[in-house]
Design goal:
Distance between the termini: 19 Å
Largest sheet: 6 strands, mixed
Shape: globular
Order of helices and strands: EHEHEEHEEHH
Number of strands: 6
CATH class: Alpha Beta
Strand content: 15-25%
CATH topology: Alpha-Beta Plaits
Number of helices: 5
Number of domains: 1
Structural class: alpha+beta
CATH superfamily: Alpha-L RNA-binding motif
CATH architecture: 2-Layer Sandwich
Length: about 160
């Protein structure tokens, strides 16, 4: 349900259930998706303010989102293979973004628009489903339990 571009990593929900797909992808449901982005440069809370207000991109104005700088102790992502490009003279930072819309390469375009290009992007949550709580390693999968399925449908029916 939804998509990740080939340069992105993280949580995917797979389903052939039309109700779930419609409810998770329908913009009127405002279903949150949380991403951690490693960006080029030093991110500050003030630098992220345009994202919180809604940044203008070429084709559209992105809706306001929740954005914050992640502390080093909050970043527990496995190494990426192949690794991102590393330049000794340019620092990187990690930020967390929670969006309720999902346009093509939107997070990457939003961070670039504020001068912090994305180097690595991970989707860490879709609604109440969090990658950190799944116990899954990269490439692993599991089925949702019946209570999780009901929770998904109940949350979306509100």
């Amino acid at each position: 349900i939804g998509r990740l571009d080939r340069d992105s990593e993280g949580l995917l929900l797979l389903s052939d259930e039309p109700r779930w797909t419609d409810r998770l992808l329908n913009p009127r449901q405002a279903h949150p998706r949380t991403y951690h982005a490693q960006v080029e440069g030093t991110a500050t809370e003030s630098a992220l303010e345009p994202l919180r207000r809604g940044v203008r991109l070429k084709e559209f104005r992105a809706l306001p989102c929740t954005a914050r700088v992640l502390l080093e102790k909050e970043v527990h992502h496995p190494e990426r293979l192949p690794p991102i490009r590393f330049r000794k003279s340019i620092p990187t930072s990690w930020i967390s973004l929670t969006l309720t819309e999902g346009k093509n390469r939107q997070v990457r375009r939003m961070t670039a628009a504020i001068g912090l290009p994305t180097l690595r992007l991970l989707r860490v949550a879709i609604g109440q489903f969090q990658l950190s709580e799944s116990g899954l390693a990269a490439g692993q999968w599991r089925e949702l339990t019946p209570p999780e399925q009901q929770k998904l449908l109940h949350r979306q029916a509100r």
